[in-house]
Amino acid sequence: MTLAVPVSGRADQTASRIVLGCIADDFTGATDLASNLVREGMRVVQTIGVPTEPLTLDVDAVVVALKSRTIPAAEAVAQSVAAARWLKAQGARQFYFKYCSTFDSTPAGNIGPVTDALMTELDARFTIACPAFPENGRAVFKGHLFVGDALLQDSGMRDHPLTPMTDSNLVRVLQAQTRRRVGLIDHTAVSRGATAIMARRDSLMASGVSIAVVDATTNEDLRRIGPALKDLDLITAGSGIAIGLPSNFGIAPRDVAGRLPAPRGGRAIVSGSCSLATNAQVADFQARGGASYAIDPFKLEEDAESVGAALQWATAALQALGAGPVLVYATAQPEAVKAVQARLGAAQAGELVERALSRIAVGLVERGVGQLIVAGGETSGACVQALGIRQMRIGPQIAPGVPWCHAQSPHAGGEGLHIALKSGNFGAADFFTSAFDLMDGEA
User: Fold this and answer.
1) Which CATH number does the domain housing residue 426 bear?
2) Could you say which of 126, 228, 253, 437 is the most buried, measured as most Cβ atoms within 10 Å of its Cβ?
3) pTM score of the predicted model
4) pLDDT grade, residue 255 (50/70/90)?
């Protein structure tokens, strides 16, 4: 079980009863969601995978972090349903399936199949789909998803190596993945508030619609949507919708003990994301004179010593810089990614890079790195698992959706590890620099 927030309540031996049970399809998304709930006053526990024991901490919500975004749909469904059953056993009154704010999926899934399965499991007649996260430039208007000023299909997500998004119309994208009818609650209803949203919902249900994409372009929209979701068994969304939910349970923003232990050790970044945002962050770090080392996927296939060479370089660089930071990355431009996939295959290329970067992350921590940034959802999942992290506390927010956390790891010694798990598309160009600047302020 992974503690995502310093909990002010009492832990005892009796089962806790939670109000909100969340299932996230990757680790960065889980932390993103937990962070938003905490900002709105909820006490939250995040788990890595589906727990096997009952919850005993006195908290309001649990976020179960899965690594299910790009696995076969049947496996994603099985894991998600298992998570829902465990959350149901902990007393959850409402359930939340969290996916990426860029709606990462393919016609085969996994958003649609998981939504279908959870609706069946929870006997939910209706749910919404809303990946909007305006703080990070994700908006839904007339059912179309925008990334900044560009339609999704014109953004860098068009070239995503695993889930290329070539259609911005979310009604159409989701309808291809589900057997249920998909409709739209557009901005006309959203702008008029909860009563109008619920009236539109009732009209859609009467016409046979079971899932509605919901427009949202601002945080005010998200807060208008929140009250309209109070009686739904299941919500599916990015992390943005979370800001409008705690008030449904009588919870208001409040001070949370978010201070982490004092930072220690070397500083490093491990980046596997090939998003436009992460490419810009790598370039910015290098332009500032940051020490960096590129992982070549072709050499990973042919040379078992590639990981050792990267660690040898990082060790020397950390010593020369007096604790860093250093960057080890497989981040690349779309053309380079396509060349690797053409030769190795998309799945094999991804697995090679994830396995290598997770071994490098472990090696860095064993060599004294105490402050680690991991960029990329799949990379974060691989690194968290390799590091054996079982418990994380949410700390100060670096950028919307990305906080510093503190975790215990068998590779880090008794003082633990500060770690930030960054979704590939999140953060400004100077994210790596600003993240460590924030740690300086916490020292």
Assistant:
1) 3.40.980.20
2) 228
3) 0.76
4) low
